[in-house]
Backbone:
């Protein structure tokens, strides 16, 4: 690896594996200018994809997922490492599913993870993910968040899963999930 400052070769002075063994952190030093910096190595799985509502396949983008999680948790007391761990878990789930999952499933896993980390971040993510167009939708989501009833099948419950709801999620949101 070359130094970002002077472009001279560097040497590794310390190597650590992440707690979940998904990445390697290396501290490096430049032999020319003495600058120290950190690099991260992460396994890059090939050909992971999400299936959009339209049926189109799109490459799974961990950075895009993490960016959405970070925006939802902006100015919230959520450690970035916990959001990165959540993104890692979702990525591993896509791998376990054979390399492809519906985009809705990825979004639901992100919601479930945020729900456990920070409820305000959950609401901010839900507002974008579910396309809230009216403030009353926040009230409904908040009521569901406060409901002690466990979610259906371990997933975040949607309006269509709620036995108290006379309509399903498709009718309420106006699109197919």
Residues:
């Amino acid at each position: 690896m070359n130094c970002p400052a002077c472009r001279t070769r560097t040497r590794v002075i310390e190597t650590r594996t992440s707690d979940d063994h998904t990445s390697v952190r290396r501290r490096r030093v430049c032999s020319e200018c003495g600058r120290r910096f950190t690099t991260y190595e992460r396994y890059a799985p090939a050909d992971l994809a999400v299936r959009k509502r339209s049926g189109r396949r799109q490459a799974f983008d961990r950075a895009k997922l993490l960016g959405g999680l970070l925006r939802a948790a902006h100015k919230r007391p959520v450690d970035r490492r916990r959001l990165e761990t959540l993104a890692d878990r979702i990525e591993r789930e896509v791998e376990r599913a054979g390399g492809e999952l519906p985009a809705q499933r990825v979004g639901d896993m992100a919601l479930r993870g945020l729900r456990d980390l920070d409820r305000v971040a959950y609401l901010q993510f839900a507002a974008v993910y579910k396309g809230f167009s009216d403030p009353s939708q926040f009230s409904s989501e908040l009521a569901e968040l406060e409901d002690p009833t466990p979610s259906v099948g371990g997933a975040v419950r949607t309006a269509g899963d709620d036995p108290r709801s006379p309509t399903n999620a498709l009718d309420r949101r106006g699109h197919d999930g």
DSSP finds six helices and six strands in the chain.
